[in-house]
Design the sequence.
């Protein structure tokens, strides 16, 4: 616009670098009859009002240059109120986002004022002072977290009480018991839980032999590790609750795995034999107890009538003995017609006699 104004000023002067500002009759030049026409001179009277007239843009720029104090730009009269309304809207949005908190049923909110713990928010819509005065850190207290050992496919070797090595893979399940302790008492909760779990597991395995570690003692190890972990974490005031320990793998190292499998199979067979022997012992004991009870009853009957009981016992005993014997009963004065069973049995067992072999003829000329 500055160049435009300079061009207009130069055009309004009577003389220019090309001569006077007069018009020639033929319209070929300006400034004189023989000089070239001035390119900066105003056009003829018929065209001056259309070219030299100001537009709406010129009027707006003119008011902007001259309307403000000291020649600066001018603003509407209600600009200050617009700024105040914008600032107020931002403040309301900031208060709404930092003062109202929606806490889920499984969550708790830890409230701090200027970095110091003040309270714990329960589930629901809760209100606090806006940040940075008060801040709320929301923690999920019902989410079950799982830590697996080892991380990856590498072996996790531990030393047992009988100086053997066992490869152990297990997992730890835990959640948040106290959100304020969980946030403020320990810096890295996950790393702390992993370190405590590994320490407790190694201590528990060191108190067992190899047979217990890879066999029947796994349940005892899991319970002992859970108790040890919970005790240590409570001493640290970590706000962590140990839900359970699960051993997924307990075996000998891969180098001696075949030999330990054979040992395990032999142990299982020994346990099976032991169970069978215990079952047989229970049967024998039950039979003996039954016989003793029966003898007590017979003795009571014998005390009441000895002769009758003695004769009955004799008949019962003879019946049991003779029932299993091969016998023939012969009444006195009667001659048995059929052969006795013993004779018949001997005849059936005796082989038939074979014909004697024919003697071979002696060779001619044998010595006599």
Sequence:
């Amino acid at each position: 616009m500055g160049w435009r104004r300079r061009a207009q000023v130069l055009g309004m002067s009577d003389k220019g670098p090309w001569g006077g500002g007069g018009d020639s009759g033929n319209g070929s030049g300006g400034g004189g009859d023989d000089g070239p026409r001035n390119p900066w001179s105003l056009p003829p009277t018929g065209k001056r009002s259309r070219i030299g007239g100001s537009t709406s843009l010129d009027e707006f720029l003119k008011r902007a240059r001259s309307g403000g104090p000291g020649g600066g730009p001018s603003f509407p009269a209600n600009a200050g109120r617009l700024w105040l309304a914008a600032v107020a809207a931002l403040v309301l949005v900031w208060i709404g986002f930092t003062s109202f908190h929606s806490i889920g049923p499984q969550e708790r909110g830890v409230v701090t004022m200027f970095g110091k713990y003040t309270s714990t928010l329960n589930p629901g819509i809760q209100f606090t002072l806006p940040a940075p005065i008060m801040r709320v850190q929301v923690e999920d207290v019902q989410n079950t977290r799982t830590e697996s050992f080892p991380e990856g496919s590498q072996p996790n070797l531990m030393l047992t009480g009988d100086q053997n090595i066992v490869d152990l893979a297990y997992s730890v399940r835990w959640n948040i018991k106290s959100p304020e302790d969980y946030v403020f008492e320990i810096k890295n909760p996950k790393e702390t839980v992993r370190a405590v779990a590994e320490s407790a597991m190694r201590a528990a395995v060191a108190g067992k032999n190899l047979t217990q570690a890879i066999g029947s003692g796994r349940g005892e190890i899991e319970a002992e590790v859970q108790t040890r972990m919970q005790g240590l974490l409570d001493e640290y005031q970590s706000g962590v609750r140990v839900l359970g320990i699960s051993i997924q793998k307990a075996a000998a190292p891969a180098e001696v795995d075949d030999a330990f499998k054979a040992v395990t199979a032999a142990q299982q067979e020994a346990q099976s034999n032991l169970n069978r022997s215990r079952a047989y012992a229970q049967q024998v004991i039950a039979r003996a107890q039954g016989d003793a009870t029966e003898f007590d009853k017979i003795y009571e009957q014998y005390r009441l009538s000895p002769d009758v009981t003695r004769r009955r016992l004799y008949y019962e005993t003879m019946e049991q003995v003779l029932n299993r014997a091969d016998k023939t009963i012969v009444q006195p004065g009667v001659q048995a017609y059929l052969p006795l069973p013993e004779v018949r049995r001997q005849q059936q067992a005796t082989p038939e006699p074979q014909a004697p072999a024919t003697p071979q003829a002696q060779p001619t000329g044998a010595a006599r």
